[in-house]
Amino acid sequence: MTSAPRLHLTDGGRHSRDEGEQRIAAIDIGSNSIRQIVADVSPSGSIRVVDEMKAAPRLGTGLHEAHALGEEPMRLAVESLARMATLAKQLGAQRIEAVATSAVREASNGDAFIRRIRNETGLKVRVLMGEEEARLAYRSALAHFEIGRGRAVVMDIGGGSLELALAAEGLVERLISLPFGALRLTEQFLRPSPRPKSVKKLRKFIRDEIRAAIPARDWRGAMVIGSGGTFTNLAGIHLARQGLQAARSVHGTRIPRVDVEHILEFLSGLSLAERLAIPGLNAGRADIIVAGLAVAAEVLDRVEPRDLTASAFGIREGLLLDVARVTPTMADPGEARERSVREFAERCHFEEPHARQVQRLALQLFDALGKRIGCTPGDRQLLADAAILHDVGYHINYEGHNKHSYHLILHADLLGVAPGEKLVIAHVARYHRGAVPNKRKHPAFGSLDKETRERIVRLSALLRFADGFDRGHIAAVDQLKPRRTARALRVHVSAVPKAKTLRLELWGGARKSELLAKLLDTPIEVVGPDGAVVRAAEMDEVVE
Questions:
Q1: Which residues pair with 38 in a beta bridge?
Q2: What DSSP character marks residue 537?
Q3: Does residue 248 sit in helix, strand or coil?
Q4: What is the pTM of this model?
Q5: Which CATH architecture has domain 7-127?
């Protein structure tokens, strides 16, 4: 199986190209906004984002009544496109692919606008049909989520239309485009300001068509992925309500279906000025977010999934994959995540044998002690990822490398890892050595909610202990077997066949056991193969 394409944000976006890479710019001219990505595309399909630019001329404003694009939105759009074309050329883009969607597609003066763009910017714009938009959104989702198994509904809500891709086992069965965009519906139903009654009327208006588009019997319970500004803002609000504003990306955020309804109901009762103050909601989206969420809620009512997954990638990324002629491959559950974590670690030049050894020992401890200290089954994957990435900070410097690991992970593009999970992984890596988590001394940790803090402490305790048992980075320890006695938890340590001595490993494990001992409320004794016992309390220095 070949790897799915990789999209990486790079520091500053001004790196040199590798041999064989093409620099390509993709521009999506939507009803609400215009977005550009400039990226380097390798022959193998690796895509590295170099730069991005966004503008919001709102081409779809007034289109429902006038059936034509307004002069002022067109002027603003042309100015923005000229800047984008200039940026793409200055960055050395060898090809600029520009597409327009529903506003230009439906406007009586759409063709004239396309000619104006060509004359004033040199850009040749291709108008997409709605089904093509849905296909590109699905192609992007296939590259960023594990939707090659089971049934999936990918929806993209733009300013003028709703696109749906219905897929089973990685194959698209149906592509649908409906005139239910956030800007269009806001103008039709929610001016001057949304109210619960007008939102109810809007939902009733779109319900029958959505029900006709999605056969409930075939798609009930399918995974639902949402792309577009409606969903990134929804995810931002959801994360803020959980106290996770520190998340650097909303990609992969899972929002329970009931929370979508709660957020929609909450926003429907606010004025525009009040919505502008909502944490996680972009000011440029505040006036049309309610209509977008109403559409999303009706799709969710039809499919009845447990939750909705937000994607930070959409039509532009699908367009990049098209231009690059890269076909995303279906991944088995967990494969895309594991590959993404490994590739990030490799880019940081991690010491793989040590990382794998610490991961193996940490999971042994989790399986033996995790339930006792309050871990859930889902915590196991977080610990596994943190173990692989705990030393990536060496890529910056040895001194304080645990803190460097925290910052690198927090900014990493890890497919299949939700923002809240990435925050946990970053903190667990940060606390694998040095000071233990402290909400008063460490503001980033202290700003998290209590449940997340407790989760980080539990997983950090396991990772610290496991990391101590490979202090010399020679993978000499084979098994860790905890046994409870009347006075302590004894951890019996066995060696791999070729190991000469475990002196350093026993010492390292014992000196990093205190956080776990505190959680267990019992002393920990490390027992070597010869029965010798090492205790943290007997050491002069405990914290590394």
A1: 25, 51
A2: G
A3: coil
A4: 0.77
A5: 2-Layer Sandwich (3.30)
Report the alpha-carbon distance of residue 501 to residue 506 in Å, rounded: 10
In the DSSP assignment, the letter for residue 338 is: H
CA 311 to chain centre: 7
Of 349, 468, 462, 446, nearest to 405 by C-alpha is 349
Residues 423 and 455: their CA atoms lie apart, in Å, by: 11
Cα–Cα distances in angstroms (integers) from residue 307 to residues 285, 334, 337, in the given order: 22, 18, 19
SS3 (DSSP) at 185:
helix
Contact of 153 with 223, CB cutoff 8 Å: yes
**Residue pair 182/282 in contact by the 8 Å Cβ criterion:** no
Strands 223-227 and 307-311: parallel
**254-256/307-311 β-pairing:** antiparallel
Q: Please check whether the domain covering 131-314 is classified as CATH 3.30.420.150.
A: yes
CA-to-CA distance for 464 and 517, rounded, in angstroms?
Answer: 12
Q: Where in the chain is the domain with CATH 3.30.420.150?
A: 131-314
Q: Long-range CB contacts (< 8 A, 24+ apart) of 92-96?
A: 92/23, 93/23, 93/24, 93/25, 93/38, 94/22, 94/23, 94/24, 95/22, 95/24, 95/25, 95/323, 96/24, 96/25, 96/26, 96/27, 96/123
**Beta partners for 178?**
162
Cα separation, 69 vs 103, whole angstroms: 8
Q: Which CATH fold would you assign to the domain 335-538?
A: Hypothetical protein af1432 (1.10.3210)
- Of 98, 96, 74, which is closest to residue 87 (Cα–Cα)? 96
Give residue 399's pLDDT: 87
- Residue with structure tokens 């929610």? 190
What number of residues does the chain have?
544
Enumerate residues 6+ apart whose C-beta is below 8 A from 119: none
- Residue pLDDT, tens place only, 472-527: 999 999 999 999 998 999 999 999 998 889 999 999 999 999 999 999 999 999 99
The residue written with tokens 């173990």 in the block is 387
CA atoms of 136 and 273, how far apart (whole Å): 35
Write the DSSP symbol of residue 411: T
3-state secondary structure of 28: strand
For residues 393 and 383, give the distance between their C-alpha atoms in angstroms, rounded to a whole number.
17
- Which residues belong to CATH 1.10.3210.10 in the chain? 335-538
Cα–Cα distance measured from residue 181 to residue 431, given in angstroms and rounded to the nearest whole number: 45
- Token pair belonging to 519: 């959680």
Q: Return d(Cα 237, Cα 249) in angstroms, integer.
A: 12
373: DSSP letter:
G
**Each residue's pLDDT tens digit, 195-239:** 889 999 999 999 999 999 998 888 999 999 999 999 999 999 999
Close Cβ partners of 409 (under 8 Å, ≥ 6 residues apart): 389, 392, 422, 425, 426, 429
